[in-house]
Fold:
Amino acid sequence: MDDNLRREIILENYKEPYNRGLIDDENYSKINSRSDSCIDNLDFEMMINNDIISDIRFDGEACAISTSAASILIKELVGKKVDDALQILNNYKNMINEKSYDKELLGELIVYDEIYKQPNRKNCALLPSNAIDKLIGRLKK
Amino acid sequence: MNREDFPMLKSNIVYFDNGATTLKPQCVIDVMNKYYLEHTSNIHRGDYDASIITNKLYDNTRNIIGSFINADPDCCVFTSGSTMSLNMVVFGYMKKHLKAGDEVLLNKSEHASNILPWIKLSEEIGIIIKYVPLNSDYSLTIDNIKKCVTEKTKVISLAHISNVVGDVRDIETIGEFCSQNNIIFNVDGAQSVPHIMVDFKESNIDFLSFSAHKMCGPTGVGVLVGKRNLLENMDPILYGGGMNNYFEEDNSYELKSIPTRLEAGTPPIAGVIGMGEAIKYLDKIGMDKIHQYEKQLKQYFLDKVKDISNLIIYNKDSDSGIVSFNIDGVFAQDLAIYLNHYNIYVRAGNHCTKMLKDDIGINNTVRASFYFYNNYEDVDRLVEALKNSRDIFKIIL
Ligand SMILES: Cc1ncc(COP(=O)(O)O)c(C=O)c1O
Structure:
């Protein structure tokens, strides 16, 4: 992907993230996400209805990579069936962790395909996906 | 000053993370290597040549520390660092001598290691923690402290220099006030002993903690200095070898006197020797000279960045070599990563003072902390990078 386009997509999602702002509705399940290696600190809320992810929201303070990844992940996941969402998350994590992955499943998340070149930023990219993964796990039970 | 003594500075870096840890001069590395290469041996015995050399260097470190901060050498206890020293004060001394309802004065710009142990102690025995309000420039003043003192106040615990704001607290006056009012004065010297002259006796300090690695010494070693009668009434946190005279089947035992009683187990021997060398090294340069120079560097920085309109500085007036700042609209960690691109090493974060966000209203800042081996050119490089920060996302994304 062209570097300028990649940067533009990340910045757009950093400066005006999708679904930023929590609504504190009791139908949502909530999780806080921090990492040991950086100062990112984000909260996530999610609602699942009839096996479909009907909404995810987030808020907090985090770097450009973490914030934009949260925004793009939410766009990609809302409206999906839970199992499909898990597949997308897995595929995304594989990409970040330099394992084999399916490009077709990524959508805009492809902008992070070169994060592995900055190993200290992998955790930033994984912070939102890990949080969402945990929330799904909790709600599936 | 003295840049040639620091091997790390031979590479093209600007090291401004001195509040976190400092670089090591060759002489410190050399004495530690010498211990490992030529006279490795344990302490507390001196029956063969290598151990005689080791013991001498080890024991002499107490004398070096004692004269550096004006304390009795046998009241200087070797610990693993400030964190351990502060925990020893809280759980070795305070736990035994304070009771439910006793008040301890802290403030929100303290490091986690001068807050969390107190919170834990409060949970265990019901002491009450009070936070002295900070001034509008986030500094801590004696007036605000006095306003919080009641007849239940038993301890005032504070950093001599805070690690985010970098304000230098007037410990002479506070120490005098404490001694007049029968209050124990616990000083966290982690950010001050490396940068400014500290006089343990003259300032009426009861306990003083600091870490070697923040003052050109090795990691894993530090000091707790205490008044004699307090240390003698302190319980060890660790029990084991080196600190006892005897122990018997009937559970009777006798511990050694201070400081050994508080130093169970094999200590970081190379670390203690390295710490001694580091302190000698600093002493030779002169603490007043170091402090003045750091303040000059900070002033130079402030003058140079005056025109950078999107740069927010939180502690312009503090009297040490610490500056905390942000670029408007840029997350602190992104700024630190950007600066790393120019080989400028700074720290982004809440600097372990998580409560300060209540007062500054900001969670995270970038901190540049200067030391004597930084020069004006280092500052110029930082200023230049900050001026160009509109390119930040081009560089980090
Ligand atoms: C003010 C202050 N106190 C205590 C500490 C803890 O020191 P250490 O991690 O060496 O135990 C630090 C270190 O960052 C500090 O800045």
Summary: Helices of chain A lie at 3-15, 64-77, 82-96, 122-140. The longest helix of chain A spans residues 122-140.
